Amino acid sequence: MSFLTLLPLAVVMIAGTQLVAAVFFASSDRPRAASLGYLAGAAIVVGGGTTLAWAALRLFRIRFSTGTARDGVERAIDWLVLGLLVVLAIAVFLLRHRGPPSWMGRLQHASPGYAFRVGLLLFLAMPTDGLTMIAVGATAARHDQSWWHLLPFVLLTLTLLALPLLALLLLGGRARVVLPRIRTWADTHSWIVSEAVIALFFLFTLVDLAR
Predict the structure, then answer these.
(1) CA 92: distance to chain centroid?
(2) Regarding predicted confidence, which is higher, 168 or 44?
(3) How would you class 195 by CB atoms within 10 Å of its CB: exposed for 0-12, middle for 13-18, buried for 19 or more?
(4) For 52-75, b where at least 16 C-beta lie within 10 A, e where not — what string?
């Protein structure tokens, strides 16, 4: 499995509340500073979470993949990833109509420090993000990919999360029309894209398991 296969899971990472928060920050009193603070917090969690998952599963693979045990360990990791994807798909479905929490209204007046803390806590607290990071790290470790293979996934996640800020920078005043549309899409349709991505990655993992 190529590391490029991991990239679509970046959509799952930001779909929903995470992207809605990015829209609020891009519409806030200090949009650039708040958005950058939010992205910095998210970067720490996404980069750290996928790295921890990769390191843990890589150590497990090295420790137990000796001799004839290697195939068994790789199959065990594949089953772990499949189980995570099933749980992730269920979580995305159950949370599909939850809507943004009430506290998001305060993001309009957020300082960069507050936005940074939101980026940290939001990505730590969301169960879908934790499951996705473990699945990405475990898959990279299972295929004996180096740590740098995680970087495109992390960078794409942050790029997607930065779309509201990019819209503000590129469109200026017209962003007032675009940003509410991004927020509406994230609220109503992002879960469908997430489920499609999870299903695709599930099929890729099944192919690995069948080999």
Answers:
(1) 12
(2) 44
(3) middle
(4) ebbeebbebbeeebeeeeeeebbe
